[in-house]
Amino acid sequence: MPERRRDFVRLEIEKAGMDLFARQGYDNVTVQDIADAAGIGRRTYFRYFQSKEELLQAYDTRLAARALHAFQRRPADESAAVALCRAFVSTAEMSADQEEVAFQRNQVLQDAGADALIPGSPALMQQFLEAASARLGGTGEHDVRPYLLVWTVFAASRAVTRVWIAEGGEGETLRQRLESAFQQLLGGLGGI
Predict the structure, then answer these.
(1) Cα separation of 45 and 35, whole Å?
(2) Confidence class of residue 103 from pLDDT cuts 50, 70 and 90?
(3) What CA–CA distance (Å, rounded) separates 37 from 182?
């Protein structure tokens, strides 16, 4: 199956699952329910996702990968802190419809207790740490600065998202909220 078609099917399954999670609650939805809603068989579901937990985390993993890619592409003359914050803000550029979907997905993650501070795979997190270390002129694996930077920015992002969900997505957009939080955060990370 061409990669593009595979990605489309994967996103359709994910959308069907997230819609069910939002309506019925994560614990009340089975893999069979998701497969039925997506118009596929159970075996086909397992070609794309190993479990419903993996489906639940797919959005955060994809978003973290986009943020990593944006971070790696930021201008070399930006500080590591500024580059990482701007990379996160760039992932929040979305239309009103996309923001509504993001709100729903983040609400489902939070309700399911799956809104981990650091989403994605350990390998993806390692890539963030390596990229931050390279920007900081890394001094080896015992340099705490990449950890402080990456984990602080992830934590700030998660905090902003939690407040956005608690306020029902009203008021400022997620992007505006992130920009404001990161502006405050950069004052404390100025040396990184």
Answers:
(1) 6
(2) confident
(3) 39
d(CA 70, CA 91): 8
Assigned architecture for domain 1-50? Orthogonal Bundle (1.10)
Q: What are the backbone dihedrals phi and psi of residue 190, each rounded to the nearest 5 degrees, phi first?
A: -50, -30
CATH of domain 55-188: 1.10.357.10
DSSP code for 56: H
Which residue do the tokens 């580059």 mark? 83
Higher pLDDT, 187 or 118: 187
pTM: 0.79
Contact 44/56 with Cβ under 8 angstroms? no
Task: Give me the mean pLDDT over the 56-83 stretch.
Answer: 91
**Rounded CA separation 45/43 (Å):** 5
- The confidence score (pLDDT) of residue 119 equals 61
